[in-house]
Amino acid sequence: MPTRSPRFAALAVTVGTMSFALASCAGTTTAPVTPGQAGAITQEEAKLGAEAHPQLIAEFGGAYTGPQASYVEQVGKNIAVQSGLANARDTYTVTLLNSSVNNAFAIPGGYIYTTRELVALMDNEAELAGVLGHEVGHVAARHAQQRQSAAQQNSILGAVGAILSGVLFGNSQIGQLGQQLAMQGSQLLTLKYSRSQETQADDLGIAYLSNAGYDPDAMATVLQSLAQQNALDAQMMGSTGNQVPEWASTHPDPASRVQRALTEAQGMPGTVTNKDTFLTRINGMMYGDDPKQGIVEGNTFIHPVYGFEFKAPNGFFMVNGTRAVSISGQSGKGQLTSGTYNGNMNTYIQNAFNALTDGQQQITPSSIQRTTVNGIPAAYGTARVNASGGAVDVTVFAYEFSNSQAFHFVTITQAGSANVFNPMYSSMRKISSTEAAAVKPRKISVVTVRSGDTLASLASRMAYTNYKMERFLVLNSLTSNSSLQAGQKVKIVTY
């Protein structure tokens, strides 16, 4: 981990879906692509992918290593062969990301990514091959290049402002301010595809599945699992309007694609699912937040490495990842992150405001106030910004942890409502070494159903304090009416 910046997730994966929906490149047309006849990767594409690859790994929590990663790479390279690209096993790079969001994506040059969280949601190897095949399809069809051209960018890592029209509060966006709060750096590589591009990637993935002997219905079943996870996320957040982006904001709603995928796969050959193999190979994989990046427990975020915790206000939810913790609710949104600190709190706060606009405009707080929060030196400032939907208040609240380390919240509310985050600001505290040592990672544990086991008895073993049954059902694509058979393998989450 870098010493000056915590490994939190960029806010793009939590509120970015609102802006991506405005940037779907709906007018992009897709040229026909014949499964098994992918064109060769050009030198330019290979160069672009090689340059962006380490940035993306850093953005999404680093590469997950070990036997599970090797298995995902093996399945990904096998399905990539179905694209017809010469030397596909060597040309495609398949990476399992150490991220707790459901995400999969691809970039030019044959770079394919999926997160461990998304893999854990799958039920068999065919579903894994389907997701990776979908991403191979994006590369084979050169969708990223079409998307880039439609945005009139010189580089796929170009200016955020060329793609996004802002986030936060529906139509009352704050333009560049919201864009910077929502997205940083190489997150641009995961812009949402057009509907026709997604359809084409689904179709290619289904064809790759069938040609490899897998059950082609697996594309539909994994999309169904994603839809069910989205619904559970919304239920746990208490609002369907604040869902964590499906497929981590890079793909349209999977629920709308399930039936179409089933229809496309109808009559196509292939029966292999390799369910038991899949479950055996992912057993023991980390699930949820990595303690090294901090974890969300209910309304509390705790970071054992940096030694602090804070609580989100009532009615708000949090999502964590590599560079920021996002906090979202009906009355405001924000993030906790860090930046370069040289001991001057006023400069640090102004730099945080400047970072929101990327130099396009100046936002200056009316004043910067000094305070102390649970023994931690702190300072804060609020600026009122005129947006298309009305005035909003932007607050930066910073904490000095040492002469070279500071953290800060950036929050945005409707004008006059900035105090909704006051309980969160005042909850920041340092934790003891004992508290830090008590933070444990969760993992996927594959268990065999025994005679007498029930949905309730297995769900009770889930390492959560709430929604145990709901989490267990979604994790295993079960319903409350499902029956279990002795000898059947299921996933539970344990410490």
From TrEMBL:
Cofactor: Zn(2+)
Keywords annotated in UniProt: Hydrolase, Metal-binding, Metalloprotease, Protease, Zinc
Gene3D superfamilies cross-referenced by the UniProt entry: LysM domain, Metalloproteases ('zincins'), catalytic domain
SMART domains (alphabetical): LysM
CDD domains named among the record's database cross-references: LysM
One Gene Ontology term from the biological process aspect of the record: proteolysis involved in protein catabolic process
Name of the molecule in the record: Peptidase M48 Ste24p
